[in-house]
């Protein structure tokens, strides 16, 4: 099958946001881009994309065609670029993977799912609205809850802490592995492999 997988990392564009917890999706897609040996190029869908092939486990196997994308819009209007990329590459809903930060999961944990609500995540809300369906796949990168009474909206726009940064590269690569497993093994087997981890 030559239909690509569309893997979208969520974040906010620009260097000021690069290290934010909210940019975990961008970090994971950057790691996948290194694996395919590609460089992001500007796409008319208002996103930066890398087209390439990933060697994933299972029946999809070596040379699985992927489009890695980082919307150039701000997080809360990610849906337009994602829908435009879906239309351009003719990707069915079940081959769209969105990688995003998740407050309700502890730092260092990854959760995989299909569908569900947006849980207050404006990027997901925008994507669901633009796609007209919530049945896409999600790779959720745990960032944990904010300390004390800090507003979650403030927390996600702060950089990872010094302690978290010691393991951040490892966590990002772990999440990239989870995306590969999701594509290669399917949701149930990938959940079995990664939900017990950590």
From TrEMBL:
It catalyses: an N-acyl-L-alpha-aminoacyl-tRNA + H2O = an N-acyl-L-amino acid + a tRNA + H(+). The active site is at residue 22. InterPro entries: Pept_tRNA_hydro (IPR001328), Pept_tRNA_hydro_CS (IPR018171), Pept_tRNA_hydro_sf (IPR036416). Keywords: Cytoplasm, Hydrolase, RNA-binding, tRNA-binding. It is an enzyme of class 3 (hydrolase). It is found in: Cytoplasm. The record marks 12 as: Discriminates between blocked and unblocked aminoacyl-tRNA. The keyword RNA-binding applies. TRNA binds at residues 17, 74, 76, 122. SUPFAM superfamilies: Peptidyl-tRNA hydrolase-like (SSF53178). Belongs to the PTH family. PANTHER family: PEPTIDYL-TRNA HYDROLASE. This is Peptidyl-tRNA hydrolase. The gene is pth.
């Amino acid at each position: 099958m030559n239909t690509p997988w569309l893997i979208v990392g969520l974040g906010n564009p620009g260097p000021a946001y690069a290290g934010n917890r909210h940019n975990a999706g961008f970090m994971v897609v950057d790691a996948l881009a290194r694996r395919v040996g590609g460089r992001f190029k500007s796409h008319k869908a208002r996103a930066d994309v890398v087209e390439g092939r990933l060697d994933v486990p299972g029946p999809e196997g070596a040379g699985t065609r992927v489009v890695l994308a980082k919307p150039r819009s701000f997080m809360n209007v990610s849906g337009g670029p994602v829908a435009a990329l879906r239309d351009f590459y003719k990707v069915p809903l079940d081959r769209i993977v969105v990688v995003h930060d998740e407050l309700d999961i502890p730092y260092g944990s990854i959760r995989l799912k299909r569908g569900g609500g947006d849980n207050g995540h404006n990027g997901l809300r925008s994507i669901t609205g633009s796609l007209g369906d919530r049945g896409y796949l999600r790779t959720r990168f745990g960032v944990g809850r904010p300390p004390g009474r800090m507003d979650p909206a403030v927390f996600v726009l702060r950089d990872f802490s010094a302690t978290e940064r010691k393991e951040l590269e490892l966590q990002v690569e772990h999440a990239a592995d989870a995306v590969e497993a999701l594509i290669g093994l399917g949701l149930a087997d990938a959940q079995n492999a990664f939900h017990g981890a950590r």
